[in-house]
Design goal:
single chain; mainly alpha; Ribonuclease iii, N-terminal Endonuclease Domain, Chain A; 136 residues
Length: 136
């Protein structure tokens, strides 16, 4: 994967919530690609599996798994997102999970817009190492 558009962008100058806006979609695309490449399933089942993996609680768990391997710069981006204050509350998640999920999305948005696709893949691959229903 490389950036789909090569528009000039300085991710470090973007707000955490703008990075999370992109990172949410990047994470979702990686999850969906993984599911589709695992094999054909009914679309309704694909959607349910994807939703379970991208919900705030699952993303918060993923963030916890990744924190020990993040570089200092990556941790800074994660913390920017985790500490951001969106103008709405989580509907189906704890406040803590929602903040951790926003941190993960911020990190993924930052890496994607920075063109650090290999690092993005590596971090996502670490989340795939868990076996069973809890694989992120």
């Amino acid at each position: 994967m490389e950036r789909l558009l090569q528009l000039p962008c300085e991710p470090a100058r973007r707000s955490a919530l703008n990075l999370a806006f992109v990172g949410d979609t990047v994470f979702d695309l990686l999850v969906r690609e993984t599911l589709v490449c695992e094999g054909n399933r009914p679309v309704k089942q694909q959607h349910a599996l994807a939703a379970a993996r991208v919900k705030a609680a699952a993303q918060a768990e993923a963030a916890q798994k990744l924190l020990p391997v993040l570089t200092e710069r990556e941790k800074e981006q994660f913390l920017r997102g985790r500490n951001a204050h969106p103008n709405h509350k989580a509907k189906n998640a704890t406040t803590g999970d929602y903040h951790y999920a926003t941190g993960l999305e911020t990190l993924f948005g930052y890496l994607y817009l920075s063109g650090e696709i290999d690092r993005l893949r590596a971090l996502f691959a670490l989340l795939q190492d868990t076996k069973g229903d809890e694989t992120i």
